[in-house]
Amino acid sequence: MSASPYRHHWQLDPGIVFLNHGSFGAAPTVVLEAQRRFQDELEARPIQFLAPERGLEAKLDEVRESVAKVIGADAQDIGWVRNATDGVNAVMRSFPFESNDEVLITDHGYNACSNAVRFSAERAGATVRVAAVPFPLEDSQQVVDAIVAEFSERTRLLVVDHITSPTGLVLPLEEIIRAAHERGILVMVDGAHAPGQIPVNLEILQADYYTANHHKWLCATKASGFLWVRRELQESVRPTVISHGANKPRPGRSRFLAEFDWVGTWDATTVLSVKPAIEFLEGLMPGGLTALMEANRNLALQARACLLESQGIESPAPVDMIAALSSIPVVGGSSGDEDGDLLKQRLYTEHRIEVPIFSGPSSCPRLMRTSSQAYNDIGQYILLSEALASLLS
Ligand SMILES: Cc1ncc(COP(=O)(O)O)c(C=O)c1O
What we know:
The structure is a single chain. By secondary structure, this protein is α/β, with parallel strands linked by helices. It folds into two domains: about 5-20 and about 290-390, Aspartate Aminotransferase, domain 1 (Alpha-Beta Complex); about 30-280, Aspartate Aminotransferase, domain 2. The protein contains 15 helices and twelve strands. The chain has helices at about 20-25, 30-45, 45-50, 55-70, 85-95, 110-125, 140-150, 175-180, 200-205, 255-260, 270, 275-285, 290-310, 340-350, 380-390, and strands spanning about 15-20, 80, 100-105, 125-130, 155-160, 185-190, 210-215, 225-230, 325-330, 355, 355-360, 365-370. A seven-stranded mixed β-sheet has the order 2-8-7-6-5-3-4, with helices on both faces. Strands 9-12-11 form a three-stranded antiparallel β-sheet. The chain has a two-stranded parallel sheet with strand order 1-10. The longest helix has 24 residues, at about 290-310. Pyridoxal-5'-phosphate binds near residues 83 and 213.
């Protein structure tokens, strides 16, 4: 089985079978080199580089345009955050919760982001409800139904993932957002995994708030992400760090942009590396980013079929909910290893395979999630299925 022809673009340790692009991404060498050049420029002329009016703002605007193209949005509605957790926090800490309000999350949500929701809502006396989304599931409509069933007269906000973390599911966002809006409920989307993994079009989605990482599937350097906010709501959304933009407008720019462009001295090279990262992904194979996303999904589906067969289990989710992540229940193994920590550790130490094993939603306590990126190949998942067979027998 031959290795991926794209592998040399990444600096990943060849001694490790790396199947966890999902957690923190991995930046290709050309992107790291581009960041290094920005860092050299910064250190040569710190003021010239970092002072917003001396050129940084214009450079950030160029990146904003290239991110806007990838996500089908207007560049003016995109602010920078360090990561998706930061984006969710900014919206939650700004949201005018009142004591009678309810905010709805799901049990497939990312723990850090659910914590941010709880912190802000409960501080205001609002209630957090959790929709239990089934897993395994047969149809994406089950997700819509599980969420709609928890809406009440008091629900003001829904916080939902575009692609879930432990279960790796692409959720039917358009239907979910429509159902929420019909009831006057605002929707914040945690899209941490979406840009670069699936086509994203915010104009079609019509969410109210959307945040995502650049460092995951857009392969930019760590740590950077964006927060998109519907124009009418931007006045009310403030970054997690209040800085100069709060009382010093920038000529011709909204306060939203001014505030999210400057949260105190920051490493702007992470955001500047996003444009070279998008260019890299667009140029990696004929057909650009669209072809890459399709290739990654095809590999994920092959990998999933191989693992399901070797584990002897049924598919836990329909293929239309799978992109480049795939989670399957892990059965068997040592007693006392219900959360799969020991299994994960043995896969790494004995088989040199990096793959996450998570506690899933209550219906499925132990899940293994594989990622598929251009540097992966099917032989790596075959190795994983063999290693699992030996460790779980
Ligand atoms: C759905 C989801 N949201 C948020 C995050 C948090 O990403 P970060 O730590 O970069 O903020 C993750 C990370 O894996 C995630 O899967």
